[in-house]
Write a structure and sequence with these properties.
It is a single chain. Helices cover 76% and strands 0% of the residues. With 152 residues, the protein is mainly alpha-helical. The chain has one domain. The longest helix is centred in the N-terminal third of the chain and has 35 residues.
């Protein structure tokens, strides 16, 4: 059940990530073209690119986490009793990072509620929201991974 939900979530996040990345490329292209070709500054593009970049980073990190390609360090082959060490230590480290992203990301998002982006005129909440959102998806993906390993 969780695996099917996470498969759907990953597929949606990957598509969203592609759209956001394409939008970021377009915004940066518009900024460079306006500045270098037309000699006019587009002030809003800096904040828009920063907003889209934040979404790319944290949604991309969640997708990479699910695929097991975010950070991989292999020191030795997982066999015998050492196998459990290679499951427990990374799971604890991941849980710590997820905790920081989720709970402190919520705190940052709440601070953003009271501030506006000067160039875009939107709440800075939207700049910080991908932090706890990415952490929440990472938590779901970690639970799925640990349940799969536990059953194996």
């Amino acid at each position: 059940m969780l695996r099917r939900f996470n498969d759907l979530a990953e597929a949606i996040l990957a598509r969203l990530l592609a759209v956001i990345f394409a939008a970021m490329i377009c915004v940066v292209f518009a900024q460079v073209a306006a500045r270098n070709v037309f000699k006019i500054p587009l002030i809003w593009t800096l904040d828009a690119a920063q907003l889209l970049f934040a979404w790319c980073i944290f949604i991309g990190a969640a997708v990479a986490f699910r695929r097991g390609s975010h950070y991989v360090v292999k020191l030795w082959h997982a066999s015998g009793p050492a196998r459990w060490i290679l499951i427990v230590v990374p799971a604890i480290a991941s849980a710590i990072v997820i905790y920081v992203l989720f709970w402190h990301g919520i705190a940052m998002s709440q601070i953003g509620l009271s501030r506006l982006s000067p160039a875009l005129g939107i709440s800075e909440f939207w700049f910080f929201l991908p932090i706890p959102l990415g952490g929440a998806f990472m938590a779901l993906f970690l639970v799925e991974d640990l349940l799969g390993r536990w059953r194996a």
